[in-house]
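Bench log, entry 3. Co-assembly request; chain sequences pasted below exactly as received.
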Amino acid sequence: MTEETEHGDTREGKAGGRLTRRNILKLSPLVLLAGCDMTPEGPAESFLRSFQKFNDWFQSKVFDKSRLSTEYSQAELTPEEGFRVNSKDEDDPDIDSATWTLAVEGLVAHPGTYTLASIASLPKRVMNTRHCCVEGWSMIPRWGGTPLGEFLRMAGADPRAKYLSVECEDDYTTSYDMPSALHPQTLLCYEAYDKPLTLPHGAPVRIVIPTKLGYKNAKWVTKLIVTNENTGGYWEDQGYDWFAGI
Amino acid sequence: MKAGKREFQHPLLIRLTHWVNFIALAIMITSGLRIYNASPIWNFSMPGFLTLGGWLAGARMWHFFGMWLFAVNGAAWFLYNVLSRHGRQTTLFRWKDVSGVKPMILYYLRVRREHPPAGKYNPLQKLAYTSIPFAGLGSVLTGMSLYWPVQFGPLASLFGGYDTARIWHFIFTAGFTFFFMGHILMVIIAGWSNFVSIITGWKSAAD
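Structure output for the full assembly:
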């Protein structure tokens, strides 16, 4: 997004800007011809939003949730210099890997905070998977981390819970259906290209979920909440599809 | 056709699917161009007035609504054609039409003066009308590879992988656009009565 404001802007401020953008959602001459209401919050947009919910529902029903994203060979990797950064803000948050902890809340047997060492002590998965950005570009980085499902089991997450919400240091948020969170390729990622994650890529820990669009791969994760409530997310609340399965 | 008589041209389902397809394609192409602008493949962006949705999320909403309209309508059209055998003699390009292609090209190039003998549609028209459903099928299949590349992984590899499927998606779009331009030109040449027939079904014999 190009509409970046000064560093230190609150999330509310930014979201406000985006909402304005959404408010000016252009409707086509086609709709004009069809005689539809042209106001930005009119029937066209509410219809499209309902239809988007139908698509989300349809995906959640027909998707094979255990299907694996293709894992590529080392030769097919995107070279490290092509490892793209895309964040909602231009500046990275101030986050100290040494003191960082991951808070876990909600429907879990063992709520509390977890250190990077405790996460890294769990089985590790390294995979070369395609990261598909909603904008249309894609890349194949080499990711390494703990399968989120392993971590959630350790934390005693209720497997009957419907959703997992994620909160981040830069006030980014997103959420997943529980089957997607438990997918074997969904990682609490702390390595890229066999090295510790760098700050622009979400250090110390980010989500990597190759079965969903890029904006579901939250960076600088600070809190996980196991819940039965769909909490949406930063981009999802502004008009991007919530399920975002690929 | 005798003077004063009207000729029935297009059954209801053909007329209906024609116009639904027109709306669906308008939505798909204009919202698709906005999606393209979010990460242009080539060194240019599409001008805003050709795009629909205002921003990427809005364009995606339109695109993933339009895709149902386009696919379901296309499937209905295909089923109708197969089951009713509609257009089999008049519109479908078949082996026997191959020999008629060259004379038609020569006629259009004004090398040949007389219109070669043809039925309702000439061999070049048949070729165009027969190839466009394949562009439709290609658009749907490449679209599925881009929309759900994990679920339809093998499909994406059929088109040379995720990034190449995206280029194919545009090639099919370009195919529709060229067809549309040729189609509009022919409609203008054929005149008003012909145009009315895709709405009412009937063509008056006045011309």
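The domain at 6-204 of chain B is CATH 1.20.950.20 (Fumarate Reductase Cytochrome B subunit). The two ends of chain B are 10 Å apart (CA to CA).
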